[in-house]
Amino acid sequence: MKKIIPIIFFIHIYIFSSAQGSLPDKRSYFFEGIFQYGSILPHRIAIKHLRTGPLFGYEFKFGIQTTSNNLWKKIYNQPEIGFGFYGANLGNSPVLGNPNAIYSFIRIPIKRGRKFIPFYQIATGLTYNLKKNLAIGSELNQYFNLSIGGRLKINPKLCLINEIGFTHFSNGAVKKPNIGINSFSYKLGLNFNTVQQEFIGREYEIPDFEPLYEFYFFYGAGLRQHNSGDEFYFTSTISTGLLRQYGHKGKYGLGMDVFYDETLYIFVDDEPFLKYALKQGFFLSHEFIISGFSIVTQLGIYTYQKSFAHHTFYNRIGLKYKFSKHFFANISIKSHSAKADFIEAGLGYYFLR
Fold it and tell me: Structure pTM?
């Protein structure tokens, strides 16, 4: 998990640094203080008893309002980016602990008005101070939050923040148990800007987009446990796919995976032949593009699994970064329903037509 979090932070550091050189003389920084109230959401009967009270939390944020001629920032209506600190009482401190998180975020305006800006926000980072229990088996975990809300203008430098959000803590099955903890909360806070905020959006000319086709090949690897206290087993993935980029913001496609998972040997009494550790499947894919990065989501179906056939479907969520004309890095969590299978990280090759 310690190796995964820096990769996640690198994404926002890259976006944050790319905003610096294109801002006006009076750079627009902001500070936020947020209170939240909600509840954990038991997604399995086995952890329902962990919810014994309401969730109370707080956040402090520092960010910057981008104002740039970069195409991706114009496409996303000049997003806000920054870093934050999270703290919460999940309603059952003796069992769950009182988690804290350090995270980076990107907040994307949906539409800019004179008094009100609706937005959605993606945040991810590192969680600590969670106690080990039936849902979490590690001291360090990933923090992920998805929120939708709005910013209401009080005066030129002060705004009221209203949000509703979903938060997830897990370690991606790096260490068992890893059922994960989910929560839902309402957030209320204040946003203070160092200069007068620009609420009305500028009119930007967005160039037309000609659809592109992308073929790629990817190899990734990882480690996983089968049960708590077990040794770690090697996993790897070979994946190939075809994508059609339909616009500046996204692409869709399909592909094929071949998985190698040493934990599958546990379920056979025969000699550990390679065929028992292999699974093969086909998937549908979508990528949400932000600058040189993509947020990847996939839904797949197994068409070959020799030793352990208790799952029919699998899914992925991950991050892809194109660091050259033909190569990309990728890190993702493969899962079955809401349960993580393993984390895979690796490199891929692509070309466009």
Answer: 0.84
Rounded CA-CA distance 286/317 in Å is 10
Positive or negative: CA dihedral 111, 114, 117, 118: negative
Residues 28-193, CATH architecture: Beta Barrel (2.40)
Instruction: Say yes or no to pLDDT of 22 above 50.
Output: no
Mean pLDDT of 198-220: 84
The answer to whether the 28-193 and 212-352 domains have the same CATH topology is yes
Is it true that domain 212-352 has CATH number 2.40.160.20? yes
Q: Got the DSSP string for 151-189? A: EEEEETTEEEEEEEEEEEEE-TTSSS----EEEEEEEEE
**CA dist., res. 284 & res. 241, Å (int):** 9
Tokens encoding 218: 């990817």
* pLDDT recorded at residue 1: 42
- pLDDT value of position 26: 55
Q: Which long-range contacts (CB under 8 A, 24 or more apart) does 20-24 make?
A: 22/66, 22/67, 22/68, 22/69, 22/70, 23/64, 23/66, 23/67, 23/68, 24/67
**Rounded distance between C-alpha atoms, residue 83 and residue 106, angstroms:** 9
Spatial distance between the Cα atoms of 318 and 342, rounded to a whole number of angstroms:
12
Better-predicted residue by pLDDT, 179 or 302: 302
pLDDT of residue 18: 53
